[in-house]
Amino acid sequence: MNEVLLIAKAAKKHNVPAAALCALRIAENGGPGREFGVLSVSAATYEEQVDIAARSFKNHETRYTDATAFPPHTYYGRYTEEFLRSFSARWAPNDAENDPTDLNHNHAANLIAAYELFD
């Protein structure tokens, strides 16, 4: 199955915007078994990577709303920039031990720019 279909399937399953998963895929640009940057658990296949990424977006919606009292979506169902920044700070934190070249510093900007491609 191709990437677009797997992204659409995971987005539908977890009720998250497919555009967010596409943007994360672009921002991470990981190789096999790291396509979405899933490192916290074993996810050796593309299907596992995209499923965990979708689940993570969904879980972060609740965390974000609980912490800020703001919805993660606009009226039109798109994630807000603030939500994406918050997600990125958790997904790819600055000063992470597994980021010796400080690539995570650019993660939020890259994620937001990629998400805007799907506007």
Describe this protein's structure:
With 119 residues, this protein is mostly helical. It has a single domain, classed as Lysozyme. The mean pLDDT is 92.
Summarize this entry quickly.
The chain contains 5 helices and no strands.
> Main β-sheet, in a few words?
none
CATH third-tier fold name: Lysozyme
The CATH class assignment is Mainly Alpha
Helix share bin = 55-70%
H/E order of the elements? HHHHH
The coarse silhouette is: globular
What labels describe this entry?
119 residues, mainly alpha, 5 helices, 56% helix, globular
Give the SSE layout.
Elements: H1 3-14, H2 18-28, H3 46-68, H4 81-91, H5 107-116
Helix pairs in contact: 1-3, 2-5, 4-5
